Amino acid sequence: MCGISGYVGPRKVCDIIVKQLKKMEYRGYDSVGLSVVNENGIKTIKTVGRVAAVEKMVENANLSGACGIGHTRWATHGEPSVRNAHPHSTSKVSIVHNGIIENSEELKKWLESRGYVLESETDSEVIAKLLDFYYDGNPVGTLRKVSLLLEGAYALGILFYDVADAVFALKKDGPLIVGICDDEKFLSSDLNAILEYTNRYFVLEEDEIAVIKQDKIEIFGADNKEIKKAESVANWQAGVSDKQGFPHFMRKEIAEQPCVISNIILKNIKDGLPNFSADGIPDDYLNRFKRVCIVACGTARYAGLAGKNWIEKFARIPVDVIIASEFRYMDPILSKDTLVIFISQSGETADTLAAARLVKAAGINAIGIINTVGSSITREVDYNIFTEAGIEVAVASTKAYMAQIAVLYLFALKLGLLAGSLTTGKVHFFCNEFIDLPEILEQLFVDKEEKIESFAMLCLKFEIVFFTGRGLDYLLVLEGALKLKEISYINAQAYAAGELKHGPISLITKDALVIALATQGYVLRKTVSNVQEIKARGGNLLLLFKSGMDISEELLSNSIKLPRVGDDVMPFLAAAVLQLLAYHVACAKKLDVDKPRNLAKSVTVE
Ligand code: M6R
Question: Where in the sequence numbering do the catalytic residues fall?
């Protein structure tokens, strides 16, 4: 949420900052701006809208200097407007901020009592004004003094008017990466935005201040003593975040899913059995738990629900799945025989991160199922299973979800094996079914996309779409509905098929579309009855079903037949179809598929 960039070096500062911001636009796109410092002080330009708008302004702005900071905003306090856009500058400082200052109202009053006029509605402006008030020529000392006054979360990039050769950074509860080349340095909220220039970086830790110069980086800890940090090296390649010929990142990321599953097969299946040794997790760590608690947000939580289904079925271990924003304030009951699993694509989601810190502080065992290597949550848990999906750019998560459910499926099999509730032969069988998936998925895209596109045109006619199913199908339609509403702005609601007649069926009329998923053999008859009830009330039906299932012709007029695989691996096929459906609806509505309104990729505020 909000992207921060910074650059120190010999190249054109504005060009590099604009390029970095373009890569981070998915973190927020309400307004954009940048500041550059030189011997004459700080210059700032900013505007509402997207990075392209500030890029145009740069051409005429004549900004020179070796150091700059930039920002792309996801509005928290105050509407998207120029005065609320970052950077917030005074004659002495300029700052870009990601996070929320919770005591900003008090600080505003304090500043006003000292004659300051706050120009914006943001919480961030108080940081600039406080730095201005306290600045005594010692940037690090002033930053520390001000940080002690701030409550909340803040990743900051800062320029001082009389320091033309350094960008400063300070972080608490928001990601900040410092990219390293021999003769230039970068600051970024996101590794992805600097990979074009370097794969060497530092991750800033809590309360660290960085002084970033062309030839060196100094980092100071909370006690203001200098810290020597080891460099990390990213193994992601620059360029993988390009669209590679696809019209949208989302479509490209859907297409990458067979490859993502293949990566997980290579890493997490050995000798035909699930294996997490590549993630460093010993078996004797995994076989001590009597209960599992999964904590996540959004799509990652829906992945957790599928995980619950598999873990309970394969390992017979009870699982709770809890929304991270609820978990952190609910005083959760956790014991030493509970394993907590945090699931997150970004590894930076504020609520999931806070929950992870809470669990760590309570001394409870925890693992992360995380896509972003080096992200904050990865540092709060005992072990991480990296989901190997590569950079996901589209705000709507697709391949990361697929990777999360893939890991959870194998993890559940592993727990089942260790618990003795599954035989080795059975686990071999389930793994073999999983190993076949990449090829089946590839073929599914070839065979079904045209039909899915035609059904997208059908969806367009409805303002409200219901999704329904039973068992794993229900868990899948929760995610299908989220995907549709997120990018097509159609009101999409998911209900367990058996729940329809406990209320929602009153909404079924000829104006409603119901998308029903029927891939689970053991509840097929029940689901079909529920679907009949919808038809009987004039509802329009789109049925997704598994080949070979016995379904009467009258229900098949609008239907998609999915390949026949075991019930437990059907979610991998159903998920891809539901993603493609949402994608084509959004395309048909000519919406900004990769950057849906009001959303951001990485939710680093509560
Ligand atoms: O980065 P995370 O996986 O922690 O993000 C969690 C949610 O914000 C995320 O899944 C969100 O729901 C997606 N935009 C859904 O497509």
Answer: 2, 601
